[in-house]
Amino acid sequence: MLWSDPENEPPKELRDMQNMLRRLGVLMALASLLTMIVIGIR
């Protein structure tokens, strides 16, 4: 790795997309967990 190499930083749009997908994944996991609990209670 040279000092003159550019930063390996993804563009802002890509970072925003990754954050949104991460939040969506967490939300989906929580929703499926809640669904399993509700089905288990019945």
Automatic annotation (TrEMBL):
* Residues spanning the membrane: 20-41
Enumerate the UniProt keywords alphabetically.
Membrane, Transmembrane, Transmembrane helix
Q: Which InterPro entries match?
A: MmpB-like
| Superkingdom to which the source organism belongs | Bacteria
The molecule here is called Uncharacterized protein
Q: Which organism is it from?
A: Streptomyces gibsoniae
Which taxonomic lineage is given here?
Bacteria, Bacillati, Actinomycetota, Actinomycetes, Kitasatosporales
